[in-house]
Amino acid sequence: MKKAIYLIMGERVGRTIVGTWNWLWGMPVESGGKVAVAVAEESLQSMQLAVQKLAQAVAAQEGAYKTAKSKYQAKVKELQTYEQQAMVAQRGGNEEAARMAMSRAIQTEQILPRLEEMVKQAEASVKASKDKLNRERMKLEAYKADMQNMKDMSEVNEALAMIAKVNNEFDIGSAKSDFEKAKGAVERRNLRTEALAELSENPVEKLQAEIENMTLDDEVARRLQRLEDSSRKQLPE
Q1: Is the pLDDT of residue 118 over 50?
Q2: 148-204: per-residue pLDDT in tens?
Q3: What gap in Å lies between CA 166 and CA 115, rounded to an integer?
Q4: C-alpha to C-alpha distances, 237 to 205, 230, 232, 233, nearest whole angstrom
């Protein structure tokens, strides 16, 4: 499908359409994920195809240049041949043949400058095309290196994303925070309860209870002492 779109709409428009489809499917290139790598690979393939086509065009140019150069060289030899024929005919006393050969030589000589200029232009064009092809090939190699780096970076990003996902899924920090909050709430409630108990206790009653306990302790001690004294008196001497 992609190749058909590129063939019908052209490479640039085709890439735009494919990129739009990716966006519509919720896979924008800007996400920098696998989709971005896939789009980069498609673009790299398009560049490789363009460089191949350029190489074919340069080869055709060079073939045409060589043909033109051969034609020019053939015309130069043709001129030399006509001049040689005219000289031979002139020496042989054949004036008519000499004039005809020289006439052809002149006609050939007149077209040679134009042919030479055309050959030079073709040579310059071929050289420029070859230079462009070399530049594009160097760019393509750089893009290939970038593509590999992009793949490596994407894989690292995926690994980091997985690590982050695992850390988030197994993060007990939130549980610790909830535990600390609960602990603090229980401790605060305990303090409030103790304070409330202290406030709810009647200080007069507390004092009275303390006095009664002290009186009871004294009474118990007094009676125990009395029992001890009584036992001593009953013992025989």
Answers
A1: yes
A2: 887 777 777 777 777 777 666 665 566 667 777 777 777 777 777 766 666 555 565
A3: 75
A4: 51, 14, 10, 9
> 176 is written with which tokens?
């610790």
Q: Which residue has the tokens 């535990």?
A: 179
Q: How far is CA 168 from CA 114, 139, 172, 226, in A?
A: 78, 42, 9, 78
pTM for the model stands at 0.53
- Both tokens of 79, joined, read 């001129």
State the distance between the two ends of the chain, measured CA to CA, in whole angstroms. Answer: 131
Q: In angstroms, what CA-CA distances link 96 with 2, 89, 90, 108, 141?
A: 71, 8, 9, 18, 66
**Phi/psi-derived region of residue 171, left when phi > 0, alpha when psi is between -120 and 50, beta in every other case:** beta
- Asked if residues 2 and 14 have their Cβ atoms less than 8 Å apart, the reply is yes
State the sign of the Cα–Cα–Cα–Cα dihedral 27, 33, 38, 42. positive
Tokens at 92, concatenated = 């042989």
Of 6, 34, 23, 62, residue with least CA distance to 156: 34
Distance CA 95, CA 86 (A): 9
How far CA 136 is from CA of 13, 49, 154, in Å, comes to 21, 11, 26
The tokens 């002149």 sit on which residue? 106
